[in-house]
Amino acid sequence: MEKLTLSSRINAINYSFSGTMGVYANDFKGNTIELNADEHFETASCIKVPILATLLRRVHEKQIHLDDKISYTPENYVDGSGILRALSVGLELSILDFATLMIIVSDNIATNTLIELLGIDAINETCEILGLKETRLHNKIDFEAYRQLGTTTPREYAVIFELAYKKKLWSAEMSDLFVAILKKQHYNTMLTKDLTPYYFDSEDTGDEELLSIASKSGSMNACRNDGGLFYTPYGGYVITILTKDFRDPLYYSEHESYQFGPKVSRLILDHYLSLKGSF
């Protein structure tokens, strides 16, 4: 029976994956799931979670107000994900609007705008304060100038989510705001692709929404990542799935990371539900 433990079944899924997969999950009841949990991975847009945490730290310290207006400037233009690159330079929005765009559609211009507002040193200082020794933002987003954006590990990527779940990310108010923004996320293929949509959709089904997720994904040539909080009728858990070193760098929905990663997410959710709230 040892060959059918949760860890062994995750390893069985990972066996056919051409790259390296890192998995970390915590049920907040003393049980964790770990696969390459302390391995270094490129963050891609997952680094936007520490950026958001830094912004909320500054709000908590009353150094920044979320309703203050800032502008999208030419210096922060960059291709890639988001919608601001299709809008006019000079557009003025609230800081909260920039933060929301950075997370829910992974807007790169909004991200650069907030990096400029906060400073790279302050963002990495936040990582230090939160005990994230291996997580760092290396530079603003500029695909021509830099090959890397950030570095983290599966275990460390879970920490900010864990703190928010426990309402200890600076304060209960900041924790709730963090989760509220992350719940609007548009891109969570890695975590939800193999799950039954019915349980996430009360608007169209008219039934109670039994599952919800607050997450942030990230993709670059070198990685496909996702992580966040699952909320269920039995409680919640954090999960991160990071991948690298795969054969195919192209972006498409059937990429092998989006085949094997979602299987791991589904296995962990099913196991958690079958045990009514634990691993």
From TrEMBL:
Matching Pfam families: Beta-lactamase2
Q: Which residues cross the membrane?
A: none
What keywords tag this UniProt record?
Answer: Hydrolase
Is the Hydrolase keyword given for this protein?
A: yes
Give the domain of life. Bacteria
Q: GO: which molecular function terms?
A: hydrolase activity
The reply to whether Metal-binding figures as a keyword in the UniProt entry is no
Positions of the Beta-lactamase class A catalytic domain:
22-243
For this entry, the protein name equals Serine hydrolase
User: Which species does this protein come from?
Assistant: Fusibacter ferrireducens
Q: What is the lineage of its organism?
A: Bacteria, Bacillati, Bacillota, Clostridia, Eubacteriales
